[in-house]
Amino acid sequence: MLDFAIFAVTFLLALVGAVLYLYPASRQAAGIPGITPTEEKDGNLPDIVNSGSLHEFLVNLHERYGPVVSFWFGRRLVVSLGTVDVLKQHINPNKTLDPFETMLKSLLRYQSGDGSVSENHMRKKLYENGVTNSLQSNFALLLKLSEELLDKWLSYPETQHVPLSQHMLGFAMKSVTQVVMGSTFEDDQEVIHFQKNHGTVWSEIGKGFLDGSLDKSTTRKKQYEDALIQLESILKKIIKERKGRNFSQHIFIDSLVQGNLNDQQVLEDSMIFSLAGCIISAKLCTWAICFLTTSEEVQKKLYEEIDQVFGKGPITPEKIEQLRFDPDRFDDESVMKTFSSLGFSGTQECPELRFAYMVTTVLLTILVKRLHLLPVEGQVIETKYELVTSSREEAWITISKRY
User: Fold this and answer.
1) Are 402 and 159 in contact (CB under 8 A)?
2) Where are the alpha helices (DSSP H) in 43-116?
3) Radius of gyration over alpha carbons of the chain, in Å?
4) In this structure, are residues 317 and 308 in contact, taking their beta carbons and an 8 Å threshold?
5) Burial class (CB in 10 A: 0-12, 13-18, 19+), 330
6) In angstroms, rounded to a whole number, what is the distance separating the alpha carbons of residues 380 and 383?
7) Residue 33: alpha-carbon gap to chain centroid
């Protein structure tokens, strides 16, 4: 349960920026407790580095100043909400900006988000609608990819250890690349190539930018810049191909191309969603399955609800919406309430998290209908805190078939 508590707090504080609401730099803290910038240019980034991670920095900050605190991420003032009750009262107070996207754009040094309030609002709605439309259009694809993973796991002997983090990353990469960029990524080699460049870029975003080590290593900086250029080149090619044409498969890029955005804006928004969507989906799937393996009772209740909602019938978006799987029903401890407040649906979350919820829900429905998900005896999963919480080592599970 302690591991669950650590995860729940980390999920709120660091996974998707759900507790970080970034205000324009010109806005003053206006009575909000917190710390002043350590450096004019970098704000409190040196303090984040010295703390070891953003998660540990925020935990220490809230312990010192309370549930609502402020600090400086570069030149931008950030307000962090550190409890569920405060979070519920202040869901997305800045309607024109998504905090996680804003943070990533800052780290990638993208500039096109600095438009007027009306422009930012229009772009945000277009982004959100793109997620909704691409999920609706590609629901059958998510089912297909989930079934493929199920078949792969069913082929394993029951004693075999399954590398969960590795498989979830591969599953998320296939899902996101095809939903964002289309049928080109039905080719596994294209996905592998994308995953390699994604890994290079994301590792530097998660650490190299924050601790300043990227700029100190010409080799790493070149590798990062080359990988980013390759990712951008792929996106530019697909953006050009989709302009002014109709395809049977509606992808995320289509919604942006059809909106009133210039090519650079389409590129940046596609890049942000591709980077964040992959990593958030992979980690949410990983942690959800990890914690299901730790509680046979919760997994049983989830199976019963899935069986009640779907029975022998097909899995559809409409029936997916009927799932309210809520761990709080099965355990009164406050940590479970913390986790259940995140929910599996709704429109208040950032678009990448909403996408990850659907991907995770579809996958869990497919897997739990046919499999018991079991822990590896003696395994202790240690967490690593960067922009997204992950396991320090590979997370292993075993499976057995439901009869």
Assistant:
1) no
2) 45-51, 54-65, 84-89, 99-108
3) 21
4) no
5) middle
6) 10
7) 29
Paired with 246 in beta bridges are none
Instruction: Specify whether the CB–CB gap between 70 and 34 falls below 8 A.
Output: yes
Tens of pLDDT, residues 96-155: 455 567 667 777 778 655 567 777 778 888 888 899 999 999 999 999 999 999 999 999
pTM of the entire predicted model: 0.79
Give the C-alpha separation, 99 to 394, whole Å.
Answer: 29
Contact 57, 48 (CB under 8 A): yes
**Which one-letter amino acid corresponds to residue 376?**
V
Instruction: Provide the 3-class DSSP secondary structure of residue 231.
Output: helix
Q: List the alpha helices (DSSP H) in 18-83.
A: 45-51, 54-65
Sequence-ordered list of residues with C-beta below 8 angstroms from that of 95, at least 6 positions apart, any chain? 121, 124
| C-alpha span between 38 and 212 (Å, rounded) | 15
Distance CA 240, CA 242 (A): 6
User: Do the Cβ atoms of 381 and 289 come closer than 8 Å?
Assistant: no
Both tokens assigned to 187: 């080719």
Amino acid identity for residue 82 in this structure: G
Query: What's the token pair of residue 136?
Result: 């609706």
SS3 state at 199? helix
Angstrom distance (rounded) from CA 164 to CA 127? 30
